[in-house]
Amino acid sequence: MAIESNKTVRLSRQRETILAELRKVKTHPTADEVYDMVRRILPRISLGTVYRNLDFLSSRGVVLRLGGAGTQKRFDGTPEPHPHLRCSECGRVEDLMAPIHLPSLAAEEAMGYTSLRCDVEFVGICPMCANSKM
Ligand SMILES: [Zn+2]
Ligand SMILES: [Zn+2]
After folding, report:
1. How confident is the model at residue 108 (pLDDT cuts 50, 70, 90)?
2. What architecture does CATH give domain 81-134?
3. Residues in the 5 Å CB sphere of ion ligand 1
């Protein structure tokens, strides 16, 4: 019994650390990058534990999971849907800090869907990659 409760406490501490580290950055890190950040605080944590906790947190809407098929999943400590910019050259993902009009939800309604959220991602070339090509 005592061992069980110890295990639970340790798991929640790992989860809290993962969440706290993710919320510190605006870089939308991959699971591997989150692992590198968390390992500085919890040197014994495994990559599998980081993956499992990120899955858990994103399935409960505590963090956002970004990225579709063919791209590495990235994680965002801001759970509210917000528009992103992704660089097709270096893969960086940034929050779009400019007001935009989100697409109307009428299209989904016409198809009989109830919209839960709308993910907006612009794909382009970031200024640093554009400059390095000149
Ligand atoms: Zn770039
Ligand atoms: Zn974001």
Report:
1. confident
2. 2-Layer Sandwich (3.30)
3. 87, 89-90, 126, 129
